[in-house]
UniProtKB/TrEMBL annotation:
Species assigned in the record: Arthrobacter halodurans
Alphabetically ordered keywords of this record: ATP-binding, Nucleotide-binding, Transport
Recorded GO MF terms: ATP binding
Domain of life: Bacteria
Protein name: ATP-binding cassette domain-containing protein
InterPro entries on file: AAA+_ATPase (IPR003593), ABC_transp_ATP-bind (IPR050319), ABC_transporter-like_ATP-bd (IPR003439), ABC_transporter-like_CS (IPR017871), P-loop_NTPase (IPR027417)
Family note: Belongs to the ABC transporter superfamily.
Length: 228
């Protein structure tokens, strides 16, 4: 069995106030292993995005902890640890907004590589990541607002691969794209575990896409269950 890259230990989320909590996620445990793809499906409002935000360290859970490579990453008592942030990367639906504005994408990714002290020539590393993300390298010379939604998502995949992410969390990445673009993006995402050895967590409403993943988690009214 391959090594655990991401572990949820009792993570739960209640919005609202202490007196009137609204449970979005019941305490949940699961492990995601290197090289696997996991789909997260469920009806609108079930708690999928809440789960994604917690795993990415963007939202502090009301309970529980997230471990990365067996090390504490974030949890109810503490925000994400900086030295592990790059290990879990997101590909959001509005990927353009997640990239630094007005700066050519290449520059912002290369800066991130230097900041993280990633080995090797940033340019060569990014060229390989662009290939994995199936994005034309010329598009990386543009600022995020000069990219289409699908191109920005590929740029976000390239960033994740370049910084050495071991877990990519994609939250409904294909839902705003036309059928051809969505199919191309889905192929690029599903190929990631095989190419990088990392894991993919794919939140989707698309059953056909979910069945292409190794496992499927279903979220029902905040309860996460493995359905396949
Ligand atoms: N900031 C917030 N404050 C209060 N309640 C929230 C907040 N964000 C989400 N919720 C509630 O938590 C529940 C889960 O929301 P979440 O966005 O995680 O669902 P989802 O499964 O991602 O839905 P969708 O598929 O429509 O994106 C919903 O009932 C939602 O109304």
């Amino acid at each position: 069995m391959s090594r655990a890259v991401l572990q949820a230990r009792g993570i739960g989320m209640a919005y609202g106030t202490r007196r009137r909590p609204v449970t979005a996620l019941h305490p949940t445990d699961f492990t995601v292993r290197a090289g696997e793809s996991v789909a997260v499906v469920g009806r609108s409002g079930a708690g999928k995005s809440t789960l994604a935000e917690i795993l990415l360290g963007l939202r502090r859970p009301s309970a529980g902890d997230v471990l990365v490579h067996g090390e504490h990453f974030c949890g109810h008592a503490r925000g994400p640890r900086a030295h592990l942030r790059h290990v879990v990367q997101g590909v959001p639906q509005d990927a353009g907004a997640s990239l630094p504005p007005r700066v050519p994408v290449r520059r912002s990714i290369e800066r991130a590589l230097l900041r993280l002290g990633v080995d090797g020539d940033p340019r060569a590393r990014l060229a390989r990541a662009a290939e994995t993300a199936r994005i034309d390298p010329a598009l990386l010379e543009r600022a995020p607002h000069q990219l289409s939604g699908g191109q920005a998502q590929r740029a976000a995949i390239a960033r994740a691969v370049a910084v050495g992410a071991d877990v990519v969390v994609a939250d409904e990445p294909t839902s705003a794209l036309d059928a051809d673009t969505a199919a191309g993006l889905a192929d690029a995402l599903l190929a990631l575990p095989g190419r990088t050895g990392g894991a993919l967590l794919l939140i989707t409403h698309d059953d056909a896409l979910a069945t292409r993943c190794d496992r499927v988690f279903t979220v029902r009214e905040g309860k996460v269950e493995q359905s396949r």
